[in-house]
Amino acid sequence: MRYDTQKRTKSVMYVNKYDKHGECSKNGNNAEHLFVEILKYKNCFDRKATQQEQFDHIDYFAKKNGYGISFDVKARKKKARNDSDVDDDLVWVEFKNGSGDKGWLYGKATCIAFERERDFVIVERSLLLNFCKNKVENKKVSSSRNAIYKLYTRNGRNDLLSIVKMEDVMREIRFFIWQKKPPAGHAKPAGGT
Question: What is the domain partition of the chain in residue ranges?
């Protein structure tokens, strides 16, 4: 269980039934925690998404100068489940989720925040969706190792996934990079929490 200091309540961390050791859930929660710290540092954290909003693929809301934006945070991923290390050069994208419903590419978040070792790459979800529709071949492969710009479905699931290269995303889509830690010598903004 996790203790939510904002609401002073205990909440249970969601663990997918296929996440045998809870590693994916832990990584996701850690990425979300780091991202919230950035939002707070930038003095734009608004709120955590409700459960229903999370089903719509939104994790957090930010607001600054009257402008609101929503984020779906994606933790660092491995190319294949049995790889020992994550690969920040590749990004898994989800056209359909494990139940066969629309995946997070079709969610309601304004932006996707991809975690990397030292930062998050922020892209507009709608631009990423268009990029993926144009770049990913309509060809299915049976191994995740071959899923770069091809479609892949995990064994026993109804999902439809692909891998795209981060360098291509950053070359073809407007993006922002938010550092996990503020640069040395930079004070926290006034009024920040």
Answer: 2-79+87-179
Say whether pTM exceeds 0.85: no
Which own/partner pairs from 42-45 qualify as long-range (CB within 8 Å, at least 24 positions apart)? 42/178, 42/189, 42/192, 43/189, 43/191, 43/192, 43/193, 45/193
Rounded percentage of the chain residues whose pLDDT exceeds 70:
81
HSE (CB half, 13 Å, CA atoms) of 41? 15
pLDDT digits (tens, 9 = 90+) for 85-144: 889 999 999 999 999 999 999 999 999 999 999 999 999 999 999 999 999 999 999 999
Residue 80 CA to residue 85 CA, distance in Å, equals: 9
Residue 182 tokens read as 């503020």
**Dist. CA 42–CA 54, nearest whole Å:** 23
Q: Answer whether residue 168 shows pLDDT above 50.
A: yes
| Cα→Cα distances 38→45, 69, 92, 100, 113, Å | 8, 14, 23, 33, 11
For residue 68, give the 3-state DSSP assignment. strand
